[in-house]
Amino acid sequence: MTTLLEPAVTTAALDPTAALDPTVEQGRTPVLTVDVPAGQAATWTAANREAIRGALAEHGALLLRGLNAATAADVAAVAEALGVRPMTEHERFASRRELGAGVHSGSEWPHDEPMCMHHELSYAAEVPATAVFGCLTAPAEGGATAVADSQDVLRALPAEVVEPFRRHGWLLKRCYHEVGVAWTEAFGTTDQTEVDAYCAEHAVAAEWLADGMLRTRQRRAAVIEHPVTGEEVWFNQAAFLNGLTLDPMIREYLTDMYGTGSLPFDTAYGDGTPVPADVVETINEAYRAATRREPWQRGDVLLVDNLRTAHSREPYEGDREVAVVLGDPVRLTDHVMAQS
After folding, report:
1. Are 286 and 165 in contact (CB under 8 A)?
2. Model confidence pLDDT, tens digit, residues 15-36
3. Distance (Å, rounded) from C-alpha 322 to C-alpha 187?
């Protein structure tokens, strides 16, 4: 269970000349506590845009508390005030609900199961550099959007774990069928020719099966160079989207139903070699060691450098509603790798 802690805070008024000095504590997301009147979230954010962007660049993630961003429209306005350019999400691996122009719900995932550490769309050719999360309804218990600095994760991983990923990259294999997100939702179209065109443009190998199921494969670099800082980052979802992360009973059921190699998602090394279970666990342990969290409060906005910082969603009880804006799309050098 997530323990609800009284946050250590730093206050800043609506006055844009006030110093923005986030509180940074071991194991906790950096928190900047402000006192912004209702309806003024975007105004305050615009006035403090450069300082906020600077703090985000320094820490990789920043929670703005007291911003009073209570609606999806507020969250979208905060993102716009920060200069975050919304992007259309293709290839999503879980359903979302559209909440307005450029803003949607968090991924629909069972409330009692964790969503492991990941970077949004780390498997896509075009990825969001920035993610903005706004808490519209805080859960009764749990449900934190935790973060982990993937520079720290990379430094913590043993060389023998990183080396094959560095050499071969990682391979994402997906099968779109009745279980999981449908290809029509993932690609935003009902036209197979549009899917084929998208896949060809974004280095995704696509195969249509006789029953109408779509099977895809894409190979991406597992370690990237951050385009702004030049630092190396562990940037992938090789552990989260590996079939071994599924509950064993569910994995066996899906394999029996659809056959070997037809899970909704699975990963391998870039040369197609399976990733051993102990490697998946080592990666997840590195994420756990790097995890920082702060329980949600209504009106909070969490900013994440999606290239540097992974995030997760912890199990929760009660209602939970988080609005999300993915933006600042970028194509990373050497991220897309040729199929082996």
Report:
1. no
2. 544 457 889 999 999 999 999 9
3. 22
Residues of the chain with pLDDT under 50: 1-14, 16-18
Q: What Cα–Cα distance (Å) separates residue 69 from each residue in 34, 64, 143, 230, 239? A: 12, 10, 18, 33, 33
Token pair for residue 307? 């290239």
**CA 307 and chain centroid, separation:** 9
Alpha-carbon span 304 to 53, nearest angstrom: 10
Edge to edge, the sheet with strand 61-65 lists 31-33, 61-65, 301-305, 127-137, 321-330, 103-105, 98-100
In the prediction, which pLDDT does 213 show? Answer: 87
d(CA 219, CA 52) in angstroms, rounded, equals 34
Side-chain-facing half-sphere of 179: CA atoms under 13 Å: 14
Per-residue pLDDT at 60: 98
Please state, in angstroms and rounded to a whole number, the distance separating the CA atoms of residues 45 and 325.
15
pTM: 0.92
pLDDT digits (tens, 9 = 90+) for 301-328: 999 999 999 999 999 999 999 999 999 9
Angle at 89 between CA 338 and CA 118, to 5 degrees: 70
Beta bridge partners of 111: none
Picking from 108, 86, 111, the residue whose alpha carbon sits closest to that of residue 96 is: 108
Quickly list DSSP for 8-30: P-----S-TTS----B--TTS--
Distance CA 89, CA 206 (A): 18
Burial class (CB in 10 A: 0-12, 13-18, 19+), 19: exposed
Looking at residue 213, what DSSP letter applies? -
